[in-house]
Amino acid sequence: MQCNCSSSIGSFPSPYWSRTVLFPDWAYKPAWSPGSRQVQLWHFLLELLGRGESGAIGWGGEWGEFVIRDPERLARLWGERKGKPHMNYDKLSRALRYYYNKRILHKTKGKRFTYKFNFSKLILVNYPGHPPCHQLIQSTPLPFPVLPSEVGGARVPQCGGGAMIDRALQSATHPLMLPYLLQKPLPFPHSHPVQGHFPFLPVPSAPGSSYSNLRELPAGCAPATIAALHLTPNVWATKSGKEWGLNNITRTSSLCVGQGGKECGDKGVGRGGTDHFE
DNA sequence: GGCGGAAGGA
DNA sequence: TCCTTCCGCC
Predict the structure, then answer these.
(1) Which residues form a coiled coil (predicted)?
(2) A256 forms bridges with which residues in the sheet?
(3) Is the CB of A91 under 7 A from strand B?
């Protein structure tokens, strides 16, 4: 199976599950692509990181962590992208700090120019419009047991929030897989591999991880899921739920995330939560 | 360096 | 809404 995967990074006439776990397309969708809104900073950073733009920015030693190696250069690149010739690191970092409250990013304390993505939140806020839980229950078997209390009318959340997401998260081996547990495919026809700059997640050429296994995957199973499933159990075992950010997301996931990342549902959960992830 | 308030622009 | 700009504080 081949795909001519194209993106802001380039063309990849290679199997899309090739060497690394994949980000969904939205994570790398170029700013100038039709229908996209103006590029967001986190998106721009992921683009640079995915490209392996190691001069200005690179992945750090921990999951989701990245290091700004040349702050002024990064600011210049960001300024060029946004048409802001007077951009500097001070301003860029202010924009980064606004992500703290949104829980998209947090600062790695004690390490200069080092920040950490909260990918699980990134998935949630950018994964709008998944179907209501009752549809999920009716249409497709979920990869985790559904409690009677969750099926019975009153407990079914209106837009995928609440206990169901909590439980999906708990059953997810990786936050990036959450959308697939929720059974709505991301727009993946043009998926592409990230060029080997994602920390900890090389798809191993381990015995038993042959492509033949893919045939056993559910129809419509997205490439990212496929790539993730290539990870050996011990790879997952190296990261605790805490490290995946599951603690945080489980705690905050009573928030329902709908269109445009709007939160609905339980008030007083999430916004009032703590700001740390570790 | 890093933080966050405030005002303002698109 | 998502920054950009400026600023005072630590």
Answers:
(1) none
(2) A264
(3) no
Which nucleotide has the shortest C1'-to-CA distance from A89?
A: B1
CA of A39 to C1' of B10 (A): 13
Tens digit of each residue's pLDDT (9 = 90 or more) over A147-206 = 333 333 333 333 333 333 334 333 333 334 333 333 333 332 233 333 333 433 333 233
Amino acid at A37: R
Q: Quote the CA–CA distance of A175 and A169 in Å, as a whole number.
A: 7
- Does residue A84 approach strand C to less than 7 Å at its CB? yes
Tokens found for residue A236: 């997952």
Residue listed under structure tokens 């490209």: A51
Place of tokens 């993730």: A228
Positive or negative torsion for Cα A209, A229, A27, A76: negative
On whether the CB atoms of residues A202 and A228 are closer than 8 A, the answer is: no
Per-residue pLDDT tens over the stretch A95-107? 999 999 999 999 9
**C-alpha span between A41 and A253 (Å, rounded):** 24
CA distance A98 to A209: 41
